[in-house]
Each structure stands twice: as C-alpha cells, then as structure tokens.
Amino acid sequence: MHRREDVSNYPRPPHVEAVDQHAVIYAGGVVVCDTRDVVRVLETWHPPTLYLPRDAFDDGALRPAREPLTTTCEWKGAATYLDLYPLSCEPIERGAWTYAAPRAGFELLLDRVAVYPGRMERCELDGEHVTAQAGNFYGGWITSWIVGPIKGAPGTTHW
Fold first, then answer.
1. What does the pLDDT average to over 134-140?
2. Domain boundaries, the chain
C-alpha cells in the first residue's frame, strides 16, 4: 500500500531518490523492461519521472534516436533521446531519454533511462497501470496514490 503523495508538495529544484518499486514496460505486446531497480525524480507539479537501468531493457531495444535531439534541464544537465525497438512492433521514435553526464546532485541518473509512458503500450508500477502525464514534453508516471494539480495539459506550461 502506498501513501498518497501530493505533487504540490514535491520540491523545486527537483529531488532524486532510489525507491523500492516494481516497474514494467510493455511495447508491441511484449515486456521490454521489468525491474525493481527504480530511481525517481520528484518536482513540484509533476508526477514522478522514473529512471530505470539501461541494462534492464531488452538487448538492442534502446538505440540513439534516428533524428537526434538534445535538451537541457537546468538541474539534471543535457538529455539525449533514444528510439525504442521492441521486437514485435515498429520503433517508438524518441520514446526514451537519458543523461550521459548528469549534473551534481543527480548522479543517480547515470546509466538510466526514462520513457514516455504515453508512447508505450502499457507501463505498470507495483502492478498498477500507469496513466501518462499530459503533454508531449513530460514523462511522469501517474498512479492512484499521486494527487494534486499536475502540470502538462494545455495552459499549465508556465505554472
């Protein structure tokens, strides 16, 4: 059982922490990642973004994006994007990202990958189907224990 977490109480700048949770990602009808090695980033108005070990994904499933993209987070550093290649379906372009050299305070993100839950067939956290954070930019995982006004929908970009 999880205690309720109100995203309005999450910190800014963000906080990174290892947690004892079970994450499973499905794409193309198969499991592409199944791990209990979970790190999450908590930031005000956002549901947690999960970072999973690169080696927890199927071999060859993660490749540099065919259309390269780099973005910069003022706290975490430069993110590079990855395409996901499930064996049983078309690639999911820029479905994931990683920080090759995370900034101080975010070293736990090294060798980890985050995915956009809304671009995957299904994501589960501790057996619960995850709802994706709204919008095309954010990758938060919303579960029944995550509450509060959540950033991402139209009109929420600047609060």
1. 89
2. 5-147
Q: What's the topology of domain 5-147?
A: 2.170.150
Radius of gyration of the chain (CA): 15
Say if residues 14 and 119 touch (Cβ distance below 8 Å): no
Report residue 158 CA to chain centroid gap. 21
CA–CA dist 40, 130 (Å, integer): 14
The DSSP output letter for 57 is: B
Interval 89-123: pLDDT, tens: 789 999 999 999 999 999 999 999 999 999 999 99
Determine the Cα–Cα distance for residues 87 and 108; give it in Å rounded to an integer: 29
Q: 80 vs 46, 65, 67, 116, CA distance in Å? A: 21, 8, 11, 14
